[in-house]
Design brief:
Number of helices: 15
Strand content: 15-25%
Shape: globular
Order of helices and strands: HHHEEEHEHEEEHHHHHHHEEEEHEEEEHH
Structural class: alpha+beta
């Protein structure tokens, strides 16, 4: 089993180890919330027509999902953007309700949006075509839902590429030549991510799961063989040898077999755990639930269905109330405990709230009110503990420190030991953990990234450890490639393979 599975998998393992080192420092190119808010202009909404705002709020109510309605800028004018219940994107001008969703043939509008994103009205752009389906850099579901896209190449030193959605009137993806090049040595081989396969999401997922599962079996078989064949005692009596004659640790005489055995003993366990945890990253059979709240929990937290009529304070008034020290770049409409709020973003980590029924401005909701509201999330369960988390714990954390603090942590004594993390700055449920998602945190992130509370933050110790283990895994895989090639060639030519 180990021989034949190894012949097929060692090349893949070698690729996984090498690309894993690259991914420690550079992932798959995308447009993060932080990057988007750092580039979009400050909202100027004079006027924002009340009738258009009311219509946009009605669209938000019909979509029945958080963060589906946002106000931002597009080509110098304030625009409402929303996603309908079918996942389609729309955009209208906040001043008069004129549609900003352009036909796929309108390249002039998307060029203007690209220049606005770049903050350079004279940026040299080159139109590179319209995408009706994903290419290598637009494979995520969020981006695919906004097709068709216009691709614009920027003639700058970085080789910037932008993808703009005419329908959403928005830049949806950004990358540089360097990011794309590194991805070919990192994320793409590591995730088995060529666009020809990744377009078929279910097929791609099952291929990765099956390869990882088979790879785990091959590793376990190799570990069993390696331990069984290892000579634990230094001196043994054997026929033809004098008593006490020292024997080598491995019985294999061939150079590559001997080193494959010794490297397997040294690095086989981490190889096995990395391949297994890679399988867990795909959430096979959806065994681990989402870390976001369910629809019922969202409704309970918001105080029922989203009610557009409660927004008595217009968004233009809210912008004025935010003050000159707060440069809002995006505004969302939310509801907490039946109370409407305008949630404004000056940056990904800088927010402010305006009560839309009383015009009260606040940096965050009171911790006490979040703690008092927590029992409504699971009305049939006993609230075991509520506390304020000022430092990350094992399940709410971010190695880059991007997740907001402090948060309210509400732990329930139900069968799943459910814990909610409540963000006072946005008024939303930041994370939900249950028993299986906690297990997945350790079986996937803990094993795959060595993301352990006592180790994951220790740089450069973490870097050195993972690089050494990865290089050891590459060496182990390379010896397997040589052995497998020689064995397969011997079988194909009918010669006798040297087993030892």
């Amino acid at each position: 089993m180990h021989l034949w599975l190894g012949i097929g998998l060692c090349v893949l393992f070698f690729s996984w180890f090498g690309s894993g080192i690259v991914m420690m420092y550079s992932g798959y190119p995308n447009l993060t919330l932080r990057e988007r808010l750092d580039t979009v202009p400050v909202i100027r909404c004079a006027p924002c027509a009340p009738s258009v705002t009311a219509e946009a709020l009605q669209r938000r109510a019909q979509a029945d999902a958080p963060s589906t309605l946002r106000l931002g800028m597009a080509d110098g004018v304030a625009v409402w953007r929303w996603t309908d219940s079918l996942g389609r994107h729309h955009a209208v001008q906040a001043a008069d309700g004129t549609s900003r969703s352009a036909p796929a043939s309108d390249t002039a509008m998307t060029a203007a949006l690209a220049r606005e994103f770049l903050r350079d009205a004279t940026a040299p752009l080159r139109y590179a075509g319209t995408l009706e389906d994903s290419d290598q850099w637009t494979l995520t579901r969020t981006v695919r839902n906004q097709m068709p896209l216009h691709r614009w190449e920027v003639d700058d030193a970085l080789g910037t590429r932008l993808y703009v959605s005419p329908r959403a009137a928005d830049v949806v993806h950004h990358s540089t030549r360097g990011e794309r090049l590194v991805a070919w040595f990192g994320a793409i081989p590591h995730w088995i991510y060529p666009w020809q396969l990744r377009r078929h999401a279910d097929l791609w997922a099952w291929i990765v799961i099956v390869l990882s599962a088979v790879g785990t079996i091959a590793c376990l078989a190799g570990l069993a063989i390696g331990v069984w064949q290892f000579r634990w005692r230094r001196r043994l009596r054997q026929r033809g040898l004098a008593a006490g004659t020292p024997l080598p640790r491995t019985p294999y005489r061939g150079f590559w077999l001997r080193w494959h055995h010794l490297l397997g003993l040294a690095f086989g366990f981490t190889t096995c755990t990395w391949v297994f945890s890679g399988m867990m990253s795909m959430n096979p059979l959806e065994w681990s639930p989402s870390t976001g709240p369910s629809r019922a929990e969202r409704l309970a937290w918001s105080g029922g269905d989203f009610d557009a009529s409660r927004f008595a304070v217009g968004v233009d008034v809210a912008l004025a109330l935010l003050g000159t020290d707060f440069a809002a770049r995006e505004i969302q409409a939310i509801q907490v405990d039946g109370v409407p709020y305008w949630l404004a973003f000056a940056a990904a980590s800088r927010t402010r709230l305006v009560r839309a029924d009383s015009a009260q401005v606040m940096d965050a909701l009171p911790m006490r009110s979040l703690a008092a509201r927590a029992p409504t999330l699971l009305p049939g369960a006993r609230l075991h503990r509520v506390d304020t988390l000022a430092r990350y714990d094992a399940y709410y954390y971010d190695t880059e420190g991007l997740l907001p603090l402090p948060v309210v942590r509400a732990a329930f004594a139900d069968a799943d030991a459910t814990t909610f993390y409540l963000n006072p700055r946005t008024g939303q449920v930041a994370r939900k953990m249950v028993t299986r998602s906690r297990w997945n945190r350790w079986l996937y992130v803990g094993l795959h990234d060595f993301d352990l509370p006592w180790f994951g933050w220790q740089r450069p110790l973490w870097d050195v450890t993972l690089i050494v283990l990865s290089l050891g895994g590459m060496a182990l895989s390379w010896t397997g490639i040589i052995i497998g090639w020689r064995w397969a060639r011997a079988v194909a030519t009918g010669t006798t393979a040297h087993r030892r």
